[in-house]
C-alpha cells in the first residue's frame, strides 16, 4: 500500500517523541524536589505550577503505550499484507533485472538503487523497501528507466475523453486580488504592492486599449506559478532588509510589473517567496529532492529567477528535465548561448556560477533588450497625461541637477565632475544615511536622503539634469528621469565594459562584448539626443560643454512605448500566446547523418532585388508555422569584427535567433555568392559563418548555440534579421 512504510514510521516517531516528553517531565519532577530549585526562587517559579505533573506523566505514558501497540499491530498487518501479496503475485520476491535494449540504463539504475536507496526518504515514500522488485517497480512506474513488470496489475488503456475546453483569459478590472496573492511579511513585498497600487489605473487603462487592439481574439487562460527565488530565506534575501536603506530596487520594480501584467491579462496566478510554498505547489515528495514530482505539474508556465531555478532543480528530481521547457527566467543582464550550453561552456571556458542550464536562450528574460538571444521582458515607467506634461515644462529649473546613485560609494572619487557641475547647477542627491551625512557627498550638494518613490519623482519633475557616474548599470531610474522631462548625462566607457575587462560583469553568463559602451546602453542606443548625452568624463572640456548645451536645450518628457504599461502588456501577451519551448522544431540532419536517398528541399530563401541580402521567397510555397512569421526574415552577412546584433542594427533591423535554422544550410552560402571549398558541421556559437581567407564554411551542429552575440575577426557570420514594431523592438510588425 502506497505510504504504508511512512505510516509505520510516523507511529514510531510519535512513540519516540512521547518517550522524550516523559523523560523531560521526569527531569522537571526531579528539579521540583531538589532544594536548589526552590532557593530564593519561590516568586519566579510557583510550586503549584508542577502539581499536576504526576497525573500528566501517567496519561502521557498510557498514550505512548497505545501508540507503541498500534505501531506493532500496523507492523504485523504490513508483514501479513506483504506475505499475501507475494503468494498472490508469485514471482514478486524473485524479480530479475530485464535485459531490454529499449531500456539500456535499467541495470545500472538498479545497481545504483541497491547501494543508495536509503540516501533519500523519497524512495521509501514511493514504496521502495530494499527488495529487487521494489527497485524495478519504482524505476518503471515512477521513473522510466526500466520496462513495466508483466505481473503488475495494470488497467487496460481506455481512450480518455477529450479534455474540456480551457477557460478563456479575460482582462481584469481590479487589482485587489493580486495584492492578496502577493502576501505580506517582507519589506520587498510591501514595496511591490505600493508600486502596483500606484500604477493601478495606468495598468487598467492600458488593458482596455490592448483589449480593443486584439478585437475579441481568443486567449487561453494559463495557470502560472511566480516564484521569486531571490526573496526566499534559503537564498539569503539580502534585498528585503535594504529596501529602506538605499538598496537596489530594480529587480523588485520589474517583478512588481510582471505580476501586474500577468494578472491584468487574466491568467491564473500563484505567488511564492518561500521554498516550502514552492515544494507544496509543485508536489515535491518528502525527502531530499532526488525523486520526480508526485503528480503532473499543474502549471503551464513558471516565472522565476536564477535562485528559484536552482531550487527547482534541487527538489524536482527528473521532473525538472521534463518540465524545464515551461520555465521563464527573469535575468537582469542576460545569458548568452555560449554560457548556457553546459558542455560547450565547460570546454570553451564560458562556464560561470550562473550559466550552463541548457535552456532555450529565449527562456531567459531581460530588463533591457541588450541581446536578442534572450526575450526582452522589461518593466514600466509612469506615463504622464497632457496636463502633467505641461506642468512639468512650466516648472522646470534649468539650473537644477539630480545625481543618480543612492549609495555613498558611488560618489567616491567624483569630486572633479561635481566641482565642474557645481559651477553651473544646484546639485541634489538622494543618498541614504542614518545619522551623519555621508563624507563622500560634498557640502555643496543638497542631500535629501532616501526618498519615497513619489517624492523622488517630484524631484525629477523639477530638475533639468539627471547625471550618472558610471554605476549602477542599466537601472530603471534613467528612464523614469527622461519620462519626467530630465536630460540624462552619462559617461562613455572606452574601452566598453565587458566580462573580459570589468569585475562587475565577470562571472555573469554574458560577455557583453563591445555592447556596454556607457552606463546605460539602452538609453544611448535606443533614445539618444536630445534626451540622452553620452560623453567622455575624462575630458573636462567635453563634459563642461555638454552641461552648458543641456542647460539651453528644451526637451519634452519622453517614454519609449515598450516601457509603457500597454507596451509591456502587448509584449507579454505575445510571448504567452506564441512562445512554445516544449515543441521546438529541430535542425535538419547534417550531411554525415543523411541517408544517400535523402534530398535537401530547395531553399525557401531568395536574393533581394538589389542583391545585397536574402529574403523569404514569395514562391517558397506554404510558409512554415513559425513565430515570428518568416515573412519578416532578412539574411545579411556580417563584417568580421561585428556581431549579428550589430549587423542587423546597421540595417535598421533586429537579430532574430529563431530564424537561424532556415539559413543553416550549404545552399545559403551559394545563394550569397560565398565560395566554400569545404563545409563542416561543428559546435560553435559563431556558426553559421565563413572563413573567407581560406574559403571554409561552417554550419551549426547544436541548435542551443545559435547566437546573435559574439564575433571573431576570422569569420563573417550569416545573420538572421527581422523588422520590428515602432517602439517595440521585441516584436516584428506582424507578431501581434
From TrEMBL:
A GO-annotated cellular component: Golgi membrane
UniProt feature coiled coil, ranges: 193-220
Catalytic activity as recorded in UniProt: N(4)-{beta-D-GlcNAc-(1->2)-[beta-D-GlcNAc-(1->4)]-alpha-D-Man-(1->3)-[beta-D-GlcNAc-(1->2)-alpha-D-Man-(1->6)]-beta-D-Man-(1->4)-beta-D-GlcNAc-(1->4)-beta-D-GlcNAc}-L-asparaginyl-[protein] + UDP-N-acetyl-alpha-D-glucosamine = N(4)-{beta-D-GlcNAc-(1->2)-[beta-D-GlcNAc-(1->4)]-alpha-D-Man-(1->3)-[beta-D-GlcNAc-(1->2)-[beta-D-GlcNAc-(1->6)]-alpha-D-Man-(1->6)]-beta-D-Man-(1->4)-beta-D-GlcNAc-(1->4)-beta-D-GlcNAc}-L-asparaginyl-[protein] + UDP + H(+)
Pathway: Protein modification; protein glycosylation
Statement: the UniProt record of this protein carries the keyword Transmembrane: yes
Membrane topology label: Single-pass type II membrane protein
InterPro entries per the UniProt record, alphabetical: GT18_cat (IPR026116), MGAT5_Glycosyltransferase (IPR052105)
Signal peptide: none
EC class: transferase
Domain Glycosyltransferase family 18 catalytic: 122-721
Highest taxon listed in the record's lineage: Eukaryota
Protein name stated in the entry: alpha-1,6-mannosyl-glycoprotein 6-beta-N-acetylglucosaminyltransferase
Organism: Chaetorhynchus papuensis (pygmy drongo)
UniProt lineage: Eukaryota, Metazoa, Chordata, Craniata, Vertebrata
